[in-house]
Design a protein that fits this description.
By secondary structure, this protein is mainly alpha-helical. Helices cover 84% and strands 0% of the residues. The protein is built from one helix and no strands. It has one helix at 5-63. The longest helix is centred in the middle third of the chain and has 59 residues, at 5-63. It starts with a helix and ends in a 7-residue tail after the last helix.
């Protein structure tokens, strides 16, 4: 069907190598996706903290217009 057994073995090795190569690329892509998601998540946390600080600072300024200490 495929010719000599040596040709068949070589083809299966090439297919295996291609499969491993594809898995490595897939793993690399998944790793980059995880890194990107964590960076995005961290950025959202920092922005949320900043917004919270801005709101709390504005409220404190309304309650204590001249600051807490005179």
């Amino acid at each position: 069907m495929y010719g000599t057994p040596a040709v068949s073995v070589r083809r299966s090795r090439e297919d295996s190598a291609r499969g491993i190569d594809s898995l490595l690329w897939l793993a690399a892509g998944a790793a980059w996706a995880i890194v990107a998601l964590r960076a995005w998540s961290q950025t959202r946390k920092v922005e949320a903290r900043r917004r919270t600080f801005v709101v709390s600072d504005r409220l404190l300024t309304q309650v204590f217009p001249h600051g807490i200490r005179h």
